[in-house]
Please model this.
Amino acid sequence: MIQPILLRNCAVGSIMGRMDEETSKYFQEDPACSVAWGMASGGEHRWPATIAVLFAGMIYLGIPHGYTVVANWIIPTLELAILAPLSILAPRRTANEGKVQQILAMAIIGVVGLANLGSLLLLVQTLIIKPSHITGPEILSLALIIWTTNIIVFGLWFWELDRGGPDERSHKYHRAPDFLFPQMSTPGCSTPGWAPHFIDYLYLAFTNATAFSPTDAMPLTKAAKILMLLEAVISLLTVTLAAARAVNILAT
Model:
């Protein structure tokens, strides 16, 4: 366990490369000018993540036969079977969340992620071995579904793993952050006690999948860097190989 760690906005002191005693005292006494990742976040509602998972399941139904590892109705059905009891029994992520609930939440992400990766590999296999068996519009639609699902999956992973997850972030003492958000380095521009929520992690996943690099939040730990690397590789493969092939077909 770590002690609460405060990131303080040094204002003029940061420009001069130092902070004098008077300025330091001001920021320590003004809670609006500091954000502590050691502070309890107050828990989070599950519904934003639930909507994202349901959306991923809905667009998965649009993947044609031959590009899914199982029948395309199985994955959404499995998601519903896990999400329904989770949403009813634990609609909010809290500090006293049970291990079973945490495992089920991560199991959903794993199932969606593996199913999406399987669809990508099947698409790449078709493009390499039997490129004439798929049309340009089919490639574009599949690539869009895979790319969108990839963003949702890694947004969920970032949300579930940063500082131990939403339940762990509800404790006053938790491990150091995996991602450094702008509000942490410049807390004066955010509300007191600001903490990232699912939408922040989803946006992080979107920018990483689009720019193939961090733009908003910076990864601090090896685990965070590996996750961002994997997401960028999958996104790059989807865009460069699938989309490029589709444009080539449509242009001829």
Q: What stands out?
A: The chain has a mean pLDDT of 78. The radius of gyration is 21 Å. The CA atoms of residues 163 and 177 lie 5 Å apart. The chain has one domain: 44-173+180-251.
